[in-house]
Inverse folding.
């Protein structure tokens, strides 16, 4: 039997009395309740139950030894009783602190379990969102492929329209050369209005001009057909729109210049008409002068009649007068026919030039309409390119979210493994540690829990920054969890007082065992 003042070791589980106190192998044992944190592992309070029973038995044996010692020797009873009362009060306080710390640790672990459940639920939601986003990205990729195919079709058709536009440009160049030749021929006609041979030559040239005009009209019809085909192709044109616009502007400037030239040619024809009118008036004045000469001749004839035979003079005068009248009449009729022919030809040529000018203006208007349609097609292509770029950005964001979800899964699995490992270590250590080691282990667990909470807070803040960087709105539950963790950290910093030093009785391996706690203290 041990003396009353001898300390007993805390590692009672390894002493010889454990064998006597342990139940026999064949005796039934009470079933252990399941732990709330998971599985069939015992909780910390359940792990403390054997220690409490051992402490109660040790205290009972110690009281029996004390009674025997008091019966044998009654030296200094008051002093011994006072010392015993102080030791029991101190140990009761240590055990109460240990129980409170264990309860707080269990509450922290339950909070960690709740956080794990919330993380698991959030991960499932993120997987659902990721699957939905993946479907959306697939649809977006299919739309992008369709847009690329449509752009390729636009490009091919625009190349065809470019070739047709080059053909039209060549035809317009030929038409311009023909118009220049017409202008040169008009100038030649103005210079070659002398004699019947020149009139025949002009007639042949007019015939050639008519043939050329007919050929030009056929070319214009051909150009109209080609322009209709080019308009159908230009509706789907995408890439060569700027070149066509430049060609159209150049053609418009050329047509404006040609219009000015045609107007100047019309003015020249009008001036030629005025000159022909003056020539007619001059011929008429000439015929008046011939009449005056005729009268003078008649006067001379009268004088001559006085000198020669009247009958002979009359016959000669009549013959000469009739000859002169015939010459004047033929000359006047020839001049009038020539003037009428020239005026009619000038009017016909002016009408043809006006028709050509109206056709060119209509062609310019059609080109402007085609340019507007091409601008609309270009705007649609730009819109498709912007949509494609936006879809690519969303696809990159979805890939980032998928990578983040994978990281969260890995982190969750790591936390699960660490938690299971920590639970196993806690269950193992609780049955092997003395009171001081339990208190230290509890404090270490609190520190680890705080570190895990800090890591969780940083990860959630990083996730919020990542979502904001990609233009997404974080969930309200995520923001509330971050606020809650920040609030807990702030409260912990405000209440972060240095822990009290361990009692002297709890330090060392030879301190006396604490008295048994009250029966209701382990229930929390």
């Amino acid at each position: 039997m041990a003396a009353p003042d001898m300390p007993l070791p805390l590692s009672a589980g390894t002493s010889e009395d454990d064998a006597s106190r342990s139940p026999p192998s064949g005796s039934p044992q009470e079933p252990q309740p399941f732990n709330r944190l998971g599985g069939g592992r015992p909780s910390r309070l359940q792990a403390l139950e054997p220690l409490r029973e051992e402490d109660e038995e040790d205290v009972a044996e110690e009281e029996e030894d004390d009674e025997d010692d008091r019966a044998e020797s009654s030296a200094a009873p008051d002093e011994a009783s006072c010392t015993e009362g102080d030791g029991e009060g101190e140990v009761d306080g240590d055990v109460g602190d240990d129980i409170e710390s264990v309860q707080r640790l269990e509450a922290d672990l339950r909070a960690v379990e709740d956080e794990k459940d919330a993380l698991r639920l959030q991960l499932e939601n993120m997987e659902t969102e990721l699957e939905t986003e993946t479907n959306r990205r697939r649809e977006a990729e299919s739309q992008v492929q369709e847009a690329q195919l449509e752009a390729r079709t636009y490009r091919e058709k625009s190349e065809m329209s470019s070739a047709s536009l080059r053909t039209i440009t060549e035809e317009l160049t030929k038409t311009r050369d023909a118009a220049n030749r017409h202008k040169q021929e008009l100038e030649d006609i103005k210079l070659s209005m002398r004699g019947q041979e020149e009139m025949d030559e002009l007639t042949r040239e007019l015939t050639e001009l008519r043939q050329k005009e007919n050929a030009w009209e056929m070319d214009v019809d051909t150009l109209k057909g080609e322009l209709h085909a080019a308009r159908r192709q230009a509706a789907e044109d995408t890439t060569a729109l700027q070149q066509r616009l430049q060609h159209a502007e150049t053609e418009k400037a050329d047509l404006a210049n040609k219009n000015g030239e045609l107007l100047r040619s019309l003015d020249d024809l009008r001036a030629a008409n005025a000159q022909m009118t003056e020539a007619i008036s001059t011929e008429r004045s000439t015929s008046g002068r011939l009449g005056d000469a005729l009268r003078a001749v008649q006067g001379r004839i009268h004088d001559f009649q006085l000198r020669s035979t009247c009958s002979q003079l009359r016959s000669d005068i009549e013959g000469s007068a009739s000859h002169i009248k015939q010459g004047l009449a033929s000359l006047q009729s020839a001049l009038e026919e020539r003037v009428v022919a020239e005026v009619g030809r000038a009017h016909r040529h002016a009408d043809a030039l006006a028709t050509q000018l109206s056709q060119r203006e209509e062609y310019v208007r059609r080109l402007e309409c085609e340019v507007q349609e091409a601008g609309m097609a270009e705007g649609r292509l730009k819109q498709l390119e912007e949509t494609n770029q936006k879809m690519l950005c969303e696809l990159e964001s979805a890939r980032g979210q998928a990578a983040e979800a994978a990281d969260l899964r890995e982190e969750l699995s790591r936390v699960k493994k660490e938690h299971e490992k920590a639970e196993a270590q806690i269950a193992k250590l609780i049955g092997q540690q003395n009171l001081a080691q339990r208190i230290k282990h509890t404090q270490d667990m609190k520190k680890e829990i705080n570190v895990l909470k800090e890591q969780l807070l940083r990860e959630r803040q990083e996730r919020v920054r990542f979502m904001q960087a990609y233009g997404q709105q974080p969930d309200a539950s995520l923001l509330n969890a971050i606020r809650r963790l920040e609030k807990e950290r702030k409260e912990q910093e405000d209440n972060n007082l240095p822990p009290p030093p361990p009692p002297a009785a709890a330090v060392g391996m030879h301190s006396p065992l604490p008295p048994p706690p009250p029966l209701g203290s382990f229930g929390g």
About this structure: The two ends are 36 Å apart (CA to CA).
